[in-house]
Request: fold
Amino acid sequence: MDPTQLLIVVAAAVVLVAVLIARQFADYKQQVAQLDPKKTKKPREFGVYTVEEVAKHNNRDDAWIIVQHKETKEWRVYDVTDYVDEHPGGESILAHVGSDATEGVYGPQHPITTFLLMDEYCIGKLAAGEEGAFQKSK
Reply:
């Protein structure tokens, strides 16, 4: 390979890396913008729910999910109804509404900012003993 060809290959690689970095930065800026306190929704009531109650909220217009917190292992309930249309993954957010969405939420497709955003949608936790019944239904 002569020096001119090498220079072209290196230049193409630099351009490709620059485009990838710019794309990642744009995605990050969009995710951070979603955390803007001015866009914060009104606080929700924090409650204690049964699996049966959560299961009733299983559609686009009334979408609740259950997620086990990775560190505390507490089962939390989230009302993501207002987030369905904003979800970058489109309809995939609806795959587990009304049930356990832990695996999907902790999937590699979600950036770290997802977990900051989720706090806004937390409406409570599962009632004591419900996690056992819930895990059996899997």
